[in-house]
Amino acid sequence: MGDIEKYGSIKKYDHVTIKPNDCLTIIYTSGSSGFPKGAIISEETYRATFPNWFTTCLVEQIIFSYRPLAWAADRFIVTGTFLAGGRTGFSTGDVSRLMEELALVRPTQFSAPPSIWNKIYTEFKTALSLINAHHSSAEELRLLKQFSKLIPNRCKILTVGSAKVSPNVLNFMKRCFSGCRINESYGITECGSVAYNNILEDTIKYRLESVPEMGYTIDDKPFPRGEILTKTTKMFSGYINNSEETRVAITDDGFFRTGDIVELRIDSSGRHELHVIDRKKSFFKLSQGQFVSPEYLQNIYIRSSFVEQIYIHGDLLSDCVVAVIVPNRVYVQAFVIEHNLINFDINNPDPQLYNAILEDLRSIAKNESLRMHEIPSRLIIDFEPFTPENGLLTSSFKPCRHKLAAHYADRLKSINTIDQRLKTIIEIATEQSIPNNDNEHFLFANGNNSLTAIRLSRMIENNLGIPIPVNVLFEHTMTLQRLINLIKNPSQISSMTNSLVPQLLNDSQLDINITVGKPKNIGQSPSMIFITGTTGFVGAFLLAELLTIYPSNCKFICLVRCKSLVNPLDRIRENMFFYQIWKEDYQERIIPLQGDLAKIHFGLSNEIYELLANQIDIIFHCGAIVNFVFPYTKLYGPNVCGTREIIRLATHTSTCIPVQYISTVSVLSSEFNQELSIDKVPPDGLVSGYAQSKWVAEKLITKANQLGLPVVIYRLGSICADTETGACNRKDIHTLFLAAIIKMGCYRETEVNTHFNCLPVNFTAKSIVYLSSIQSHVYGNIYHVLNPDSQLPFKDIINGICHCGIELNKVSDKEWGIKLKTITDQNGPFEFVEEFLSENTFNKGCIFSAKHFKSAVSSLNFPSLDKDYVCKWLNFILHHIVR
């Protein structure tokens, strides 16, 4: 620095006179989507960037510059800090020492692109995952505190800029660096700052233009979408030596085409919010015509503990995306040790690691309701990170997409044989990885959920032209090779159906092999309650009601099926948090227990099982796989065997445990509607595998009751949103139906005079807990938990949607079907229920009697399904379901 000052004092420069429109400097774009372009910045534009020249800041400003000064971000912050009398520390340029140098400089504010925050977030996820499988909240807080030390105490402002950041990463930053203000900045080299924390700058002029070929229009519901064009006081004059690019970028009326696809919203105070979807140039088109936003997907998949860096690729020859994964070495090393992968070679990763990563990505995709083509069909695993040195990141730490595509070109080439296409279809639809050369892989051996069979059947028909019935796919001997043979010889399909009634009758007579002792005397209040199904919709509200009703010394053992590395409490918390019923003090009373209903003793050790049997005072069995597409054979394990295991647990000791059993009105065929014993209801009229499995399960629980086990049966009807918050089941057919209306902006004219009979979920839970407590010594009752006298008119739903500011059109059934096809073709959440949504979803009345139930809960006030209720329900769907 002394040499620089000395040289400056000796070398004298003549004063240069410059006009406002003259070029003062050149600032380059990052080059993430192509060759960097030089933006000409005039004196007037440069001066507008710093309106308060030489205004001394009252607070000390120290910044850390680590990106090239040819780019806008560091050029402007260095200049602004100098003009405010602040100080700048410069990086040595060694990326590996970035955090070390940050600690040395100790800036008062720090700005970084998502790639750096992603790196910190990935390291946190890895550390958290490796603590142990059942890490506590205290451990997580300790780890957050440890990671917070990465940012020096003097730093009070953190900014994410230059690209879109994942909501998960942003949430992590706010939790970890709670001593800092976290900001999101959206600016463009060519026109300066556009939005700050999603709020558009007051001085900016802008407009949206539809990009219909990519599915984004200013008429989109519920919010307009398209490319944003801007005009600011900080506009560039053009690209140096590139008049053609300048002509394309600037409109005749002086607006700059940003190339960014955005969604425009309005916040509660009436300000315009801008949400970036992706760069227009980053989108790519797949063979079936869908456009894909890679940055959007990368921000979702980065949450995988396996993933350090990710590049999503696709082209016109592919029908699904491919993911290039740079794995997290620490997490992979732990995986290698845990699974005893001897002689692990990073240049040729073990298939077990490949399958584990692919399965994790597909699990994340499922939770995010991603469309089928947005889920990687295959992976490229490379332990060499993307860096500015190897050219796979720009100097501003953005992924350099064109160089990534060129670097992995040979490995990204599509494999398009029929067998490979079928294998890819099956892997995507079933969310299972099929090892190479494993044609004897059983399609549904590991279990699936959420109408997977419909998806697989449709995908096979759409891609290969052969319709495969759902029940054929669920043949217990169905392998990849057998399905390949059926595709080649479709005439064999017609002979593969048979009746299940004999099997249902036989299974209902299973020997439950129990001896029933005297019922436990729980006194005034139980001290230990065993509950299943808490990661579901009704189960979550049932747990919340029990936690509210019973005193703080009452504990709840919650059986949760999850992977070994997943904390079961996290699943309960996340589920209840989504439904807006989670309270932090709940975790002190919840005892999460990892187990599986379908396994003997739930897969628990003998020691734990004995403790359960001796300590539990009452059982609430709400757990089941609720799926109206799976055949009986798929649901037999969790629904039938699970109920049998509940009976065995309740009768394991010399004193039996009372059971509150959650069933469904689906066990009743059309000619039965009373609250009568299942022994009087034959299974002949039951069509769905779910109804069949619950019929057999209820037969078993009724048999146990007849042998002396205290049991109360609650048959649930249609369960709808919470009366307090409007929280509803995201996978329920009525939820998806209303979401489809909102998405398409229309409804069927034949639906206008229909009604919907439902019972709010919180009142359902309240009723069950109320009946279980006021009649604690009365068993054998059967209740139909519904309100046949309360109907929600479809007209009220339509009026409510319009009240939310969404315009709706009335259309014919034919037009509805056509419009529905346009959104289900996109393989989103509506793809799973197209068959159901094609029919009238609302009905004209309730066919079931609930006389006994209504009499028993007569002291409770049935909730009113009024306009306020409808508004809450629709708002929840609008903000949490519709994407």
Structural notes for this entry:
The two termini are 54 Å apart. Helix 5 packs antiparallel against helix 6 and helix 14 (418-430) runs antiparallel to helix 15 (452-464). The protein is of the alpha/beta class. It is elongated. The protein has 30 helices and 34 strands. It is 36% helix and 17% strand. It folds into six domains: 52-188, Rossmann fold (3-Layer(aba) Sandwich), CATH 3.40.50; 192-279, Luciferase, domain 3, CATH 2.30.38.10; 282-408, ANL, C-terminal domain (GMP Synthetase, Chain A, domain 3, 2-Layer Sandwich), CATH 3.30.300.30; 415-497, ACP-like (Non-ribosomal Peptide Synthetase Peptidyl Carrier Protein, Chain A, Orthogonal Bundle); 499-716, 3-Layer(aba) Sandwich (Rossmann fold), CATH 3.40.50.720; 719-757 and 789-847 and 864-883, no CATH class. Keywords: Fatty acid metabolism, Ligase, Lipid metabolism, Phosphopantetheine, Phosphoprotein. This is long-chain-fatty-acid--CoA ligase. Its EC number is 6.2.1.3.
Helix and strand layout, with pairings?
Elements: H1 2-10, E1 23-28, E2 38-42, H2 43-49, E3 62-65, H3 72-83, E4 87-90, H4 98-105, E5 109-112, H5 114-131, H6 137-148, E6 157-160, H7 167-176, E7 181-188, E8 192-196, E9 199-200, E10 205-209, E11 225-231, E12 238-239, H8 243-249, E13 256-266, E14 272-279, E15 284-285, E16 291-292, H9 294-301, E17 307-313, E18 322-327, H10 329-338, H11 351-367, E19 378-381, H12 401-407, H13 409-412, H14 418-430, H15 452-464, H16 470-473, H17 480-488, H18 501-507, E20 518-519, E21 528-532, H19 537-549, E22 555-560, H20 568-578, E23 590-594, H21 606-615, E24 618-621, H22 632-650, E25 655-656, E26 659-664, H23 689-706, E27 711-716, E28 719-720, H24 733-744, E29 746-748, E30 755-756, E31 759-760, H25 761-774, E32 782-785, E33 792-793, H26 794-803, E34 809-811, H27 813-824, H28 834-837, H29 851-856, H30 867-880
Parallel strand pairs: 3-4, 5-6, 6-7, 18-19, 20-25, 21-22, 21-24, 22-23, 24-26, 26-27, 27-32, 28-31, 29-34
Antiparallel strand pairs: 1-2, 2-12, 7-8, 8-9, 10-11, 11-13, 13-14, 15-16, 17-18, 30-33
